Amino acid sequence: MSDQVTTPSTPTMPRIGDKAPDFEAVTTHGTLKLEDFKGKWLVLFSHPADFTPVCTTEFMAFQEIYPELKKRGVELLGLSVDSLYSHIAWVRNIEEKTGVKIEFPVIADLDMKVASKYGMIMPQQSSTEAVRAVFVIDDKQIIRAIIYYPMSAGRNMDEILRLIDSLQTTDKHGTPTPANWRPGMQVIVPPPKTAEDAAKRMQEQGIEIVDWYLSKKNV
After folding, report:
1. Is 132 annotated as a binding residue?
2. Which among 2, 58, 118, 205 would be 20 to 30 A from 37, CA to CA?
3. pLDDT class of 218 with cuts at 50, 70, 90
4. What parts of the sequence cross the membrane (predicted)?
5. Could you tell me the CATH superfamily of domain 24-155?
6. What is the per-residue pLDDT across 123-176, written as a single tens digit (0 to 9) for each?
7. d(CA 115, CA 190)
8. CATH top-level class for 174-219?
């Protein structure tokens, strides 16, 4: 029998539709588990490092949308590979210098266990810091959306809110949303799946028909 060469396995990065990887971690609000958020939506996001300028602006921006997230039944949880004491000092510094009180918990992931499970470490960017990742996890703890940003680019909070509104609207009405959609705008009517239904669609009332495969309606 010939010798087989084995290579170290690489952790599988989670994908949209996967069950969110379980974790238990120390945070600025005590020890938290993924299970603690069951029944609510969760935005889990990572940042490269405490006491850095882009991350500081992002934390202030996340705090600004936090009340809007809570209105939508969404909790917010930050993460970096810094220590708990660094997190505590940083959020206190933000409040002292800017008047913005950070109300959401932040995971201290020194051993990178959570960051590795969620694919937040990109070796070509840094082997010791997490990139700017955003995971939208629904109330059944399924990953519904993933956004990655490079370390040099701060995130757009309006897009995160818009994305959650889109996902929750689709869940409620069973309808996808078009480009640049925002609440109050028309949604997409799912296209017909047979030639007979396509013909019927062209005669359907109460919707805006561009063609048989592209129709919109209000919800």
Report:
1. yes
2. 58
3. very high
4. none
5. Glutaredoxin (3.40.30.10)
6. 565 545 678 999 999 999 999 999 999 888 999 999 999 999 999 999 999 999
7. 36
8. alpha beta
